[in-house]
Amino acid sequence: MKRDFHTAILISFLILVFTTISATSLYATNGHQLSAIGAYQQGMAGATTAAPYDATTAVSNPAGMAMIGTRTDFSFQTFFPSREVSFAGDGTSGGGSNWYLVPAIGWTAPTDDRQDLFFGGGMYGVSGMGVDYDTVAAYTGMFGAGTQAHIWSQYQFWKMAPTVAWKNEKLALGFALNLDYQAFGFEHYFTNGGAKLFGFDLGEMQGALGLGAAVGFIYTPVPTFSVGASYTSKQYFTDFKWRLSANDVVSQTGQTSQDGIYTMSLDFPQQAAVGIAIRPIRNFLWTLDVKWIQYSDTYDVVKLKGAFGGTGGTETDLPFGWDDVWVYATGFQFDITPKFAFRLGYNHSSSPIKEEDVENNVAFPAIVEDRVAGGFTYRLGRHWEITMAYMHAMREQLTGLFGTTISLEEEAFDFELSYRF
Predict the structure, then answer these.
(1) Residue 83 in 3-state DSSP?
(2) pTM of this prediction?
(3) Domain total in the chain
(4) Which helix (H) or strand (E) holds 18?
């Protein structure tokens, strides 16, 4: 067992190095949060709160780390978003990278050869977004011919989740410390004849460190039924800091940035999930999850702080107006043979953005609502297994009060390689 544990640590370290080297921005689905992390969760459309399988449970329900045995899991997702903006009567653009790589690594093992207390964790890409539209004509009816929109954004969120979990015959409990990193930058401004009319130019990516925690339980009164729940606290971050120049920011109320340092606080929302898992027969699993994400607490009105010229003041508002999101997901797993398991799932979430918020979220079109997914696991002998999954998020389109239309459609392919000890 000790040699196996050391092997797990070595594999995890090597994969972590690869993960760090290959990290790039990502794009997500439930708001800007991934609807599923890793190929197993993806195949079940994220409905895994009461049915853990691999080490990604550290960030969805830490109690699951006591129920998946000794293992290490490496997964990466290739993500293909298609987004577009159209200004009423003016320009249209679909921009940004056509694919992103989202890696994740996790492991778990019993402590001191005990079978009731487990320690594990990993590093996971859990959220993100980004666009890079062409410079296009916009709002020429309001601001005159020659008005152009300049829109770009990139957001990344990474989480390390060292986890301790305990179980007995019927109950599992888990706690994860969340050590976070996020990077953010965006441009959303309008010009005419080279002069900035209004908007924000925060185009240099800045990073911030964060801290939070997650707790969860899974209760299995009988082998055919489990119920689970998890809660992840608000993740508190240090401020982003930008060194801005004159007129990098021109608010619609007449505030203008001056040369100097400007800060923004952008915490990550708290969330809670509850789920059930039912095995009516040995080789069939059905899961159902409900999740709540409190975006309204962190992404309703975000404040940029500094010494402004023009109409003055020490802060200006970015009224994104995001609402809370409710997520409903269900998944099915069929164990066709002892080595091969097949999965199907469906995920629906509300959109955090409404019609009245479209013009303030052209750089953040996180509006998809419905997703279908499927996948499989194939076990290569006693230790190794391969898991793959596919997800498609149906195209959504939303038009704002001034005629601006944003749309988004997504596809993802997941590959996961696991070693079971």
Answers:
(1) strand
(2) 0.91
(3) 1
(4) helix 2-22
